[in-house]
Amino acid sequence: MMFGVVNNNCEAIIKIAVGRIGLPKITVDAVIDTGFTSFLSLPLSIITSLGLPWHYRDIGTLGDGSEVIFEVYKASVIWDGQNKIIDVVASDADPLVGMGLLYGFKLQIETVEGGTVTIEALK
Q1: What InterPro entries is this protein classified in (predicted)?
Q2: Which residues contact 99 (CB under 8 A, 6 or more apart)?
């Protein structure tokens, strides 16, 4: 089970350890975004500092319906206590956890400032 908190902007935040496969990880605060279908997005500055390997380009549709080209990298995260290899999308926004990473888990959010975010594996 993983835990997070709702911040003063009513964003559900969790800490996620991310890094290059086989190397030490850093911890980042990431906003849970149920409208984001991939696994994780990170600013290019973090991707570069971690030395994440480039994987491919993909076309994505934003919330306003516009399409953009995303650069996708490979990374290792610790998710529910396990190492997991995932795609990471380069973005200008704050780190986001998407539905790809949440798939197979139950997400509960107490939607008030300081509320608890709970993520647990479905049985």
Answers
A1: Peptidase_asp_AF0612 (IPR022274)
A2: 34, 36, 37, 38
Q: Where are the domains of the chain?
A: 2-121
Contact 53, 45 (CB under 8 A): no
- Side-chain-side CA neighbours of 22 within 13 Å: the count stands at 1
pTM over 0.85: yes
Q: What is the pLDDT of residues 24-79, one digit of tens each?
A: 999 999 999 999 999 999 999 999 999 999 998 988 777 788 888 989 999 999 99
- The Cα 41–Cα 48 span in angstroms is 13
